[in-house]
Amino acid sequence: MGTDAYADAAGLVARSAAAYVSSVPTDPADDGFFGPASVTWQLSGDLSSIVAGLRALLVQALHPLAMAGVDQHSDWRRDPVGRLAATSSYLATVSYGDRAAAGRAAARVRRIHEHVNGTDPVTGRAYAASDPALLLWVHATLVESTMVACELFGTPLAATDGDRYVAEMAVAAELVGIPAALVPLDLAGLRRYLSSVRPELRCTPAAADAAAFLLDPPGLDPDIAEIWQDIRDGAAATMPEWALQMYGYRAPGALTPARRAEIRQALGVLDVVFLGEPGVLEARQRIALRMRAAQHA
Amino acid sequence: MRKALAAAAAAGALAAVGLIVARRGRLRLRRGLAALQLAARGGARYTRSAPRLFASAGRGREQLRNDLALQTAEDVANTLGAMKGVLMKIGQMASYVDDGLSPAARRALSRLQDSVPPMSAELAAGVVESELGLPPERAFARWDPQPIAAASIGQVHRAITHDGRAVAVKVQYPGIAETMAADLDNVALLRRLLRITAPSQDVDALITELRDRVLEELDYRREAANQRLLAAYYDGHPTIHIPQIIGELSSRRVVTSELSDGARFAELAGWPQEERDLAAETIYRFVFRSLYEAHAFNGDPHPGNYLFHGGGRVTFLDFGLVKHFTLAELQPLMQMARSLCVDNQPEAFRRAMEDAGFLVPHAPLSTEMIVDHLGVFYATIRTPGRLTITPDYASAVVRRFFDLRSPVAGYVSIPRSYVILQRINLGLFALLGELSATADWRAIAEEIWPFVQAPPSTPMGEAEAPWRARRLAAARG
């Protein structure tokens, strides 16, 4: 873990912003795998996406083999901010980049995954990061988390857009190497898949460490910790009860409208800070103009 | 992250208060965010701030991004909801002390302003229709669907009324007033954003003031009422012009006033010094007559709120942020000015400051020290004679006022009802400094001070006489 967790947290905005800005192309060769009319673009720019990311990481960590791979092979404990920025960069490139850029980014991730093999100390099972089963878990939890967070804190999706989003994101699954036949193509399929994995989930010590870091980054300045509390409460409110129980957290109870508004306000404050980073406004405008053009086409 | 915002918002707050009190020493920002902290430090940071206040404050949404125009109320909510509209307001207020902000804080706030596109023609037309009951093409004889300027949480369109008057129509973003009012209810978050600079006992008063002012600005009827009041007051004035409100075409979210044209502040800077002096005299007369006679104070000294016509004639725009004073609130101010400048009684000045709540009673300070520190605002009017307010002079006023090393600083606070007054005072100094304006300010003050009522001291004062006579007759009649 970073010796200076506050510095890590401060760097989070700048490094995530830089990753985002460099992933939004200025002169794309094509519309990429999703395009400006996609639900994916709509959701990627939603205020709720930070809660979505936090929820996805918390749920993903409950798969012992996925968690073991991250714990034993990535340097998240030493450089958590770098790890998160790399993930943001990958997701933004796959979403907004042209096909060549997204393809290159995915190929790089697949190459890295080839070397991520080992044995989970808790279950004693062997794992490989390129195992489609693990990749699918990571994929499906991200897709689900994005929708759940948006429903609670974002701009609500149109009724049929949930299915559309799941179907769109199948491309992202294939890019990291999941055979198309395994990938859920609608919400019902996604939910069936997620329930089917439940028996394998548990909170390993590595998962508990990761969650503890994410929920309460050590060494945070009190004022930063305060706003993080809102974001964390937001993520907790989106978590399934069984997941909270596995972590040993008390279920937070129903989210009151007032609390929901406060969390949205905290998200807005973070968004403004993000907007202040160099290039973020221009990158957002590039995206908005393309979405505008697609709308009128 | 919190710190970045806190510092940015705090800078806005201190602009609103006109008082920088960074007494908390425990700020520990690092890396990129460290720069933001400087905004909260005040003091030395403000050394060079005043002269250029207005050069940068005019920025904002000058280039309207029509290609990104907001098309639905949902677009508006995404852009200005979730506290962002409130932060933008705070940012606009912060622009008055622009140069006191670190580059990072200034960037965050100006980026936020830049990030708000205008409404599409259809969306703006929808607001007009729901507010005035008719689509703009029917409510007006001619309607220009392209906005000509951004306004406070809205935009300005040109139109011609059915009786042939050219008008400016300010149209508010739909739904935003409700959203911002709700966001302003999150006092806990605002308190966290603001407490970095303000001493704890002042934070709640500050938030209340900020909240009240923003809520007022959201109701255009209030602005229309202010503008109507001042337009009536200055009706017939030789150099002060306030556009008429067209009441039947104004409502809560739409305000229509007579269209004015003239030189912007930036152009005035290139005019001969004589013209600049005259414009400065008009602004000066406007500020002090409004306060002492109409008991109202336009709290928005933005350079974009003036149009210049030569010969000292000035049009005053935008009355969204007007503070009204009761006579009881004004009495201590008059007492302060009178005891220090006219009667030359420092002890009485000190008592008046204490009575008004500006100064803690029985502070262990000599009256000489207090006069030295707080008399700074009266420096232009304590003695007769012509005086040039240079940029350096203006910055010295700000520097002296914000000098936290002064032993007096710890005993000073600005009561809530004077918060806006403080802000415009600093704004006025900055403005006059920018113009390097020369006048016998004391002589002009004596014309206006109710407790002196001296005869006209300048040609402009002479030219005011018929208007003054009518005002006095009206007051008696």
How would you describe this structure in keywords?
heterodimer, A: 297 residues, mainly alpha, 2 strands, B: 477 residues, 5-stranded antiparallel sheet, 3-stranded mixed sheet, 21 helices, disordered N terminus
Biggest sheet strand line-up of chain A: 1-2
What is the general shape of chain B?
globular
Largest interface, with counts of residues having CB < 8 Å to the other chain, equals: A-B, 38 and 41 residues
Largest sheet, strands/sense/barrel of chain A = 2 strands, antiparallel
Number of strand segments of chain A = 2
Fraction of residues in helix of chain A: 55-70%
How many helices of chain A? 14
Q: First CA to last CA of chain B: what distance?
A: 60 Å
Strand content of chain B: 5-15%
- Which ranges of chain A are low-confidence, i.e. pLDDT below 50, for 5 or more consecutive residues? 1-7
N to C succession of SSEs of chain A: HHHHHHEEHHHHHHHH
Name the helicity range of chain B. Answer: 40-55%
- The N- to C-terminal Cα distance of chain A equals 49 Å
Q: How many distinct helices of chain B?
A: 21
Percentage of residues in strands of chain A: under 5%
Number of distinct beta strands of chain B: 12
Question: Helix/strand/pairing class of chain B, anyone?
Answer: alpha+beta
Overall pLDDT of chain A: 91
